[in-house]
Design goal:
The protein is mainly beta. The protein has 2 helices and 12 strands; from the N terminus they run αββββββββββββα. Strands 3, 4, 6, 7, 9, 11 and 12 form a 7-stranded antiparallel β-sheet that branches. A 5-stranded antiparallel β-sheet has the order 1-2-10-5-8, with helices on one face. The longest helix has 12 residues. The chain is globular, with a radius of gyration of 15 Å. The chain starts with a helix and ends with a helix.
């Protein structure tokens, strides 16, 4: 299995073979499977409309993200202290451990490659329900829903 920073490097290398001019640009965006093997899975994601993933985990899979176009943010789930939001533009990458909980915000027009290792088995979605933090399991091929109540509880704008 790959370490988070190795996933980011794989995403960067995969970006070298993407022709941005050939991508269909209709609707809210979509996902294209680039590869899947016993060590990793990679997705090319187009975000023609702004998209907040909500707080989620990758069920033990590390992730590396490379930004081909636009801007995205990555934020871990803060428990106390100052929020730590990283912003990334075209040509930049970041990674996140398989044990983490995070959310991403994509500006309209963002294009990213995500490499997960080991391949995603599931995604856990987080939200505040009746005053408690709840994790709802999801399929690895489903989009993560926003977490409006959790964002409000954390004071995330």
């Amino acid at each position: 299995m790959y370490k988070p920073e190795e996933c980011a490097e794989l995403a960067r290398r995969a970006a070298e073979s993407v022709d941005l001019g050939e991508l269909p640009r209709s609707g809210p965006g979509g996902y294209v499977l680039l590869w899947s093997d016993e060590h990793s899975i990679a997705w090319l994601n187009t975000w023609w409309e702004a998209r907040d993933t909500g707080f989620h985990d990758h069920d033990g899979s590390a992730v590396g993200v490379y930004v081909l176009a636009g801007r995205v943010s990555n934020e871990g789930l803060p428990i106390e202290g100052t929020r730590r939001v990283g912003w990334y533009g075209a040509g930049e990458s970041f990674s996140f451990p398989g044990t983490g909980i995070h959310r991403m915000d994509h500006e309209a027009g963002a294009i990213t490659i995500h490499v997960y290792s080991p391949p995603l088995r599931g995604i856990g979605h987080y939200e505040v329900v009746d005053g408690f933090l709840r994790r709802t399991p999801g399929s690895p091929d489903e989009a993560s829903p926003p977490s409006p109540a959790l964002r409000e509880a954390l004071g995330v704008g």
